[in-house]
Automatic annotation (TrEMBL):
Natural source organism: Halobacterium bonnevillei
UniProt superkingdom: Archaea
Keyword entries, A-Z: Cell membrane, Membrane, Transmembrane, Transmembrane helix
Gene Ontology biological process: aerobic electron transport chain
UniProt GO molecular function: electron transfer activity; oxidoreductase activity, acting on diphenols and related substances as donors, oxygen as acceptor
Pfam families in UniProt: Cyt_bd_oxida_II
InterPro entries from the UniProt entry: Cyt-d_oxidase_su2
Protein name: Cytochrome d ubiquinol oxidase subunit II
Length: 334
């Protein structure tokens, strides 16, 4: 009883647990955006191929990873519900149509490759190939719109800021996918993907600037946050990393390019988090300290996260090490 009472009386070790869980939420979302981002990007680049063998290679590249990568989105939703239940309820009620659209797009992206392999019929494969591209492009667009609408506290699901943010995330995933293809493929497929990746990275930078301009114009209460030194530094960081990505891809240093994308994702997620703080739901005025659960469940969740998160990270480290290196030319999806 005394141990329970101590857990209910104060945060573990006096740590700022509400702020740490706020940061953990965005870390989890960033992991999803980076890891499933290359799946989305490769799905979008699928539209540029018309050779059946190259299409099979693209599906084989993401085959071992995409379903595992989606776990991070599930963990994000679970962590949001557990740590900030009122915010979870507000977001999912305010943007419920957007949430259903994201789930539908994710379902289409997952179903399409499976159906694609069911028949050798050319028309069948063309149809499901289109479905794969649509699901891969629509999901990051809707996720970007959700995050930007969440940031500005938009009451509507259709906003200029959300649309620009969605396009920025789509461009980022294409750059991510191109870098991953650089690690996994060779020849003309890699070269073509690299060219698209460079264009996507430049487009991402332009769209980030446009999105920030839209936030500044449409959300006056966020203007002081956009002028915060950390936000300014993150914008400069984004410019530098975009240039680094372009140089790395052109120099065929794809590990560097992939690391640059990881930095771009981290910079984007950190920018949103810094601009949003101290609120966790600006539309309702809920701050991080107000929205967090009570001390006892917060401490228990922290202990569980401290145990389970390293296990999950270790699993992904093993997964990516097992399937590291270029794809064997004889491998096929399935």
């Amino acid at each position: 009883m005394s141990s329970v009472a101590s857990l209910a009386s104060a945060p573990l070790f006096g740590l700022p647990l509400p702020e740490l869980w706020f940061a953990l939420l965005f870390f989890i979302f960033g992991m999803f955006l980076f890891l499933d981002g290359f799946d989305f990007g490769i799905g979008i680049l699928f539209a540029t191929r018309d050779d059946p063998h190259e299409e099979a290679v693209l599906l084989s590249v993401i085959g071992p990873f995409w379903d595992g990568n989606e776990v991070w989105l599930v963990v994000f939703g679970g962590a949001l519900f557990a740590a900030f239940p009122a915010v979870y309820a507000n977001l999912f009620s305010r943007y419920y149509l957007l949430m259903f659209a994201i789930l539908a797009a994710l379902g289409l992206r997952g179903l399409a490759p499976e159906m694609y392999e069911e028949r050798e019929d050319e028309q069948w494969r063309r149809y499901w190939g289109y479905a794969f591209v649509v699901g891969s492009a629509t999901t990051p667009f809707l996720l970007g719109a959700f995050v930007l609408n969440w940031l500005v506290g938009a009451a509507s699901i259709v906003t200029l800021t959300g649309a620009l943010g969605g396009l920025a995330v789509v461009a980022l995933t294409v750059a991510d996918g191109a870098a991953f293809l650089g690690l996994k493929t060779r020849g003309s497929l890699r070269d073509d993907a690299s060219a698209f990746g460079v264009r996507a990275a430049v487009s991402y930078l332009v769209l980030v600037v446009a999105t920030l301009a839209a936030v500044y114009a449409t959300a006056p209460d966020l203007r002081p946050a956009l002028a915060h030194p950390v936000v300014v530094a993150l914008v400069v960081f984004t410019v530098v990393l975009t240039a680094g990505y372009v140089v790395a891809v052109r120099g065929q240093r794809y590990y560097v390019a992939f690391a640059a994308v990881a930095g771009l994702v981290a910079g984007l997620v950190a920018l949103v988090a810094v601009a949003m703080f101290p609120y966790v739901d600006r539309a309702t005025g809920i701050t991080v300290s107000e929205g967090i659960v009570s001390t006892l469940p917060l401490n228990l969740m922290t202990i569980m996260a401290a145990v389970l998160l390293p296990v999950v990270l270790s699993y992904f480290a093993v997964l990516y090490s097992v399937f590291s290196g270029p794809l064997d030319e004889e491998e096929a999806y399935g």
